[in-house]
Design goal:
alpha/beta, Rossmann fold, six-stranded parallel sheet
């Protein structure tokens, strides 16, 4: 019982110190924010890069909050460590046996136990029933490509994705779209109220913005047997990413420009179509599938993308004429790397590239070829794109992107 004003203030000081040492929700120590961190720990492509970059940025620029990373299983490739980061693994035999169920629903018990104020589903989904717990939730929707191009997916996957995405958009308190294009798609396909959606652009690993020394670039080229000059493609080798048309552009340039294409990415049937075209048209020396390199297969530095900045900064240009994207993070990585970008004039890609990219119609291989030839031969154009690209990239700094997401959290707190 508090018997005086002095005792009251003493009590409040002790209370605040205790709660800042032992993170519980309180005014003094900010929010307890939880994340679906599966992809942050286990995914080496776009969703993983988004998750890691955002979590790192939030903990760096908003250290007054505590960030809980709900990870269904221990990770080997990626780690997330920091003073304000707390990894949470499933406890108990049942949760460890049924990790997927823990992630998609049972995790709610842990959210309550840890007094989570806001839970953020970083990749399209939230735990079933979280809207009945009193815990506010946010979901990031990266794209609705499975709705726009269902023929490019397994029919069962389309059904599962649609159900999860739709549920998340309906039952979360706020929806983050990573581009205006994605926001329009969420409204069109799921009829989500516009006022519920906030566009928060993503950033990328700040390592891409650091200038790599000539010695380090030379060492990476030697280790992975890269040519002195090359164009670069980074992304999954699937139909939507349009690598086949890039290879057709290379074929058109075979008499004028002997610069190979280095491909970083994996794929299935479509990749085989690309390789068949390469073989049938004698382009084996012109297209290098770097992910098949024996060194790359076993190198943690390659698998975790740690050496990608050196590869980017060694290239002539990034070639990314995708037919449709949610954002197109390789474009942003290239802009930060001061690497000219050839990308599509459709979807959200003009949002990602701004004035710092060379735009082409992605279905016309002659336009892709023309862009490659111009950037290689016109140094003034290449330098102009590098400078404009760098300036445009400043719209996507880690702090700006973290601040935008934090404003969404604060609107719910």
């Amino acid at each position: 019982m508090v018997n005086s004003v002095a005792e009251y203030f003493t009590h409040m000081v002790v209370f605040s110190i205790h709660h800042c040492l032992f993170p519980d929700p309180c005014y003094f120590c900010g929010m307890n924010i939880g994340f679906d961190a599966k992809r942050a720990f286990h995914n080496g492509t776009g969703l993983g890069h988004y998750s890691r970059t955002l979590i790192h940025s939030l903990s760096t620029f908003h250290p007054e909050h505590h960030y809980y990373l709900f990870n269904p299983r221990k990770a080997n490739l990626f780690t997330m460590e920091g003073e304000h980061l707390h990894e949470v693994l499933p406890s108990g035999v049942i949760n460890r046996l049924f990790r997927s169920a823990w992630r998609s629903s049972w995790v709610k018990k842990d959210l309550k136990r840890l007094h989570i104020d806001i839970y953020h589903g970083l990749s399209h989904e939230i735990p079933v029933g979280i809207n009945k717990t009193g815990i506010k939730s946010v979901v990031t929707i990266h794209d609705l490509i499975h709705e726009r191009y269902p023929e490019q997916y397994n029919a069962i996957d389309v059904k599962i994705y649609s159900q999860k995405f739709r549920y998340a958009c309906k039952h979360s308190d706020k929806v983050i779209a990573i581009s205006e294009q994605t926001k329009r798609d969420i409204i069109e396909f799921y009829k989500t109220p516009e006022e519920k959606i906030t566009v928060c652009y993503q950033s990328c690993n700040p390592a891409f913005g650091q200038i790599i020394s000539e010695e380090e670039k030379a060492a990476v080229k030697k280790e992975y047997a890269l040519p002195d000059q090359f164009f670069l493609y980074v992304g999954s080798i699937i139909e939507r990413k349009n690598l086949l048309n890039v290879c057709k552009a290379l074929f058109l340039l075979r008499e004028d420009l002997d610069i190979p294409l280095v491909v970083i990415g994996e794929g299935g049937k479509y990749k085989q179509q690309v390789k068949d075209f390469v073989l049938q048209n004698g382009l084996e020396k012109n297209v290098i599938f770097l992910s098949e390199n024996e060194k790359a297969k076993t190198s943690p530095a390659f698998r975790s993308a740690a050496i990608f900045p050196a590869i980017y900064q060694s290239a002539v240009a990034m070639i990314y004429p995708s037919l449709f994207e949610g954002f197109g993070i390789p474009v942003l990585e290239a802009l930060w790397s001061r690497l000219p970008v050839i990308t599509s004039n459709v979807s959200c890609l003009p949002e990602a590239g701004g004035e710092g990219a060379y735009y082409v119609n992605p279905v016309i291989s002659e336009e892709i070829a023309g862009g490659m030839k111009r950037i290689f031969e016109d140094k003034n154009l290449a330098d102009s794109l590098k400078e404009k690209g760098w300036q445009h990239a400043q719209n996507f700094t880690q702090q700006k992107c973290a601040d935008a997401v934090m404003e969404v959290y604060k609107s719910l707190w």
